[in-house]
Design goal:
The protein is built from 2 helices and 10 strands; from the N terminus they run E-E-E-H-E-E-E-E-E-E-H-E. It has 116 residues and is mainly beta.
Length: 116
């Protein structure tokens, strides 16, 4: 589970983890959607693309302590987001989650890997 410590909101109840080259490369490609309560954490990945995706997503760049260093709502398919200074991990969320949870740069996320 990922929770925004600063707002108290749950950002993702279920977190899928991409922690290898192949799982990061595959990402969300080929999926029809990302359920509202799910997120994809790309570990050790500081830039992404949305090529071959079928839906927009919210993108969050996180530092090593899971502090938000960049937040990009509603990223459309066929885009590239280069890394943000200090970004170590990338979190992909359903479009609208950043707005509904009030998550912005500077906020801290709490990650419970037991919910993997």
């Amino acid at each position: 589970m990922l929770r925004n410590i600063d707002t108290g909101c749950v950002v993702a109840a279920r977190v899928l983890v991409a922690d290898s080259f192949l799982t990061r490369l595959r990402g969300l490609m080929g999926r029809r959607s990302l359920p509202e309560s799910e997120g994809l954490l790309l570990e050790n990945c500081s830039s992404i693309h949305t090529f071959f995706m079928r839906f927009p997503i919210d993108v969050v760049f996180l530092d090593k302590n899971f502090r938000v260093v960049g937040a990009f709502p509603d990223v459309k398919p066929w885009r590239i987001l280069a890394g943000v200074k200090g970004g170590i991990h990338t979190l992909e969320l359903p479009s609208g989650v950043l707005t509904s949870t009030g998550t912005i740069a500077g906020h801290r996320l709490s990650y419970d890997p037991a919910s993997r």
